[in-house]
Amino acid sequence: MKYRQSFLYENQSVTSAMRLVIEPWGELYVIKPGDSVEVVAWANEPDLTFEIHQDVSKLKIFWSGETVEIFRDGQLVEQSPQ
């Protein structure tokens, strides 16, 4: 059975993009000022949790499950070029 966990993130800056990095894979997504995304993670275990670190320009999300997907307005977001 697959377990799903998710949270919403809104970049409340009016001028700066936020880099969202999914670890341990190093996947990079750029969240434009004012944009919101849903971070959806999948795992085979029910009790896994996110670990989140934020600084001025970067949000690092650590996940020990199988996959993480990022959605904007219900659409899957592609990774940004490194």
Give the strand line-up of the largest sheet. 1-4-7-8
Largest sheet: 4 strands, antiparallel
Per DSSP E runs of 2 or more residues, the count of β-strands stands at 8
Q: What distance separates the N and C termini?
A: 33 Å
Sheet-strand content, in percent, reads: over 45%
Q: Shape from CA axes?
A: globular
The figure for the number of domains is 1
Secondary structure: helix percent = under 10%
- Written as H for each helix and E for each strand, in order along the chain, the element string is EEEEEEEE
The radius of gyration computed from the alpha-carbon positions, rounded to a whole number of angstroms, is 12 Å
Strand-pairing-aware structural class? mainly beta
Summary of the model, kept short:
With 82 residues, the protein is mainly beta.
Give structural notes:
- Helix content is 0%, strand content 54%.
- The N and C termini lie far apart (33 Å).
- The radius of gyration is 12 Å and the shape is globular.
- The strands form two sheets. Strands 1-4-7-8 form a four-stranded antiparallel beta sheet, with no helix packed on it. Strands 3-2-6-5 form a four-stranded mixed beta sheet, with no helix packed on it.
- It is built from no helices and eight strands.
- The protein has one domain (3-73).
- It is mainly β and 82 residues long.
